[in-house]
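Hello, quick one for you while I still have it in my head. Could you read through the record and tell me how the tokens relate to the sequence? No rush at all, and the record is pasted right below.
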Amino acid sequence: MKKIALLFLLSCFAVQAQKKPLISKDEVTRIETELASDKMQGRQVFTPGIDSASAFIEKEFAKIGLAYFKDLKNYRQEFTRKDKNANNVIGVLPGKSKPNEYVIFSAHYDHLGTVSDGEDKVYNGANDDASGTTAVIALAKYFKELNNNERTIIFVAFTAEEIGIVGSRYFSRNINPDEVVAMFNIEMIGTESKWNKNSAYITGFERSDFGTILQKNLKGSNFKFYADPYPEMQLFYRSDNAALAAVGVPAHTISTSKMDDEKNYHQLTDEVSTLDLDNMTEIIKAIAISSESIISGKDTPTRVEKR
């Protein structure tokens, strides 16, 4: 009888060990709703609104228990742009066996601010890019709870993307690109892609085997990553992955935005009510699963040709 009881307990422990953390719609909705709320005043760089957004992201990183980046004393990577102060928000999950090999998950948290006239005065930027920032926070919580990353994971919310991908350029100048194994930049995942649900595209798909690795890790699922369907728009060098991609890092952007038909893009109507939060949650889950062999050190994407 004791032997049977012991076997039962061991099987329970085995099931618990295999159980993965949950990326829930409720948590995704909570984070997204806060970032895209009117009180963030459109998160325009150099305004009190973006300071509020930064404080919220910092609080989330602290609650998760992320470490600071390099020699920073907090989660803020501060810099000056035309005599005005701005900051990225960075949290780190140190790697267990490969601490000097970095995998980056990123998004930009700034947007367009407010207008003075009309009933709706706030560019909430729910899809652009509170959705990506929400994903970064949710993934940070997921990987912290999973607690098995062999490579160091850096979670970063960039500022000043909307005025020329300024924050990511500053970040890229302060990290050794040779140590960055891969960059998952997440941009506008709140609406369905042109292929409908359970799908997204990867910019620069053909420039490395990054996308091939991600899709391999999703074998058996109904989620599909596609190549960028808008090559004429040159999206690969228009988002926060660009600076590191230019120096050889397999840094790619994951998106669902229908760039030829995204009616709320850079409009006051880009609000939480326009997002498909169920699908967005599934996309975040797919990113988590698809990155596993890179996080573990099993797979290393090929480098991008330097620009």
Notes: The chain has nine helices and eight strands.
